Amino acid sequence: MSTTAQDPIVQALQDYTTCDVSDALIKLKYRNGGFLSGLTMWSPQRQDGETKIVGPAYTVKYVALSDPAPKLATHYIDSVPPGAVVFVSCPPKTPNAVYGGLMSARAQYLGAVGSVIDGRFRDMQEQRELGYPVFARDTGTAPPAELLKVVAVDVPVKLQTDEQDMEIRPGDYIIGDLNGVVVLPKELAEQAIPLMQKQVAADEKMAAEIKKGMGFTEASKKFRT
Q1: What are the Cα distances from residue 200, in Å, to 20, 21, 60?
Q2: How confident is the model at residue 202 (pLDDT cuts 50, 70, 90)?
Q3: Which residues make Cβ contacts (< 8 Å) with residue 34, sequence separation at least 6?
Q4: Pick from 55, 64, 69, 178: CA 20 to 30 A from residue 5's CA?
Q5: Is 191 helix (H, G, I), strand (E, B) or coil?
Q6: Per the annotation, where are the binding residues for substrate?
């Protein structure tokens, strides 16, 4: 069994949604509750089903060919740790896909729990036949080699959007489900989980009473204070 599978944080996070994680991070004053905008589920199904991924980030950094940084000597996908979430970053507004079906096949074999592509990916049918979770901004058809190169793995990367200034670091926890994708900074995880436990317990009580006719304001005062 991998050390990631034994990680108590990963085990604890299995019980919570991305919304639960964001609620806790907001209470800890972490920006946007860790939400990473624009990333949605494409495989095994498009925004459907019970797919959820939880694991530490294994980051991959693509840059333009004109960047002076040297290209990575080996393919990043061969170094994916078991239990990890592959997080692929590329320059914004890149029309080419930066991730494909062969990458998922290899990642799955090595024990990755899913991939998050901050850009486009391709080979949709292959991804779905693998039953491998992929979250991304969009799809594409062309490979990346004419435009981009991988220069680093396991380095901090920035979310590629003008909406937010968010960083994903190696080992930060990535959680993805139907609601979207959230990053939980590793140093906040132990503080966040008890907050999730308390919030979910309160919301379950609220939901039960609201279904019986209690007003939201009354239920909120009763169970969230």
Answers
A1: 7, 10, 33
A2: confident
A3: 21, 22, 25, 182, 183, 184, 185
A4: 178
A5: helix
A6: 100-103, 122-123
3-state secondary structure of 176: strand
pLDDT at 40 > cutoff 80: yes
pTM: 0.94
CA 10/CA 23 separation, integer angstroms: 18
β-partners of residue 117 are: 88, 136
Contact 116, 88 (CB under 8 A): yes
8-186, which class in CATH? alpha beta
Q: Which residues are annotated as a binding site?
A: 100-103, 122-123
How far is the CA of 211 from the CAs of 17, 200, 206, 207, in angstroms? 21, 16, 9, 6
For residues 157 and 90, what is the distance between their CA atoms, to the nearest angstrom? 9
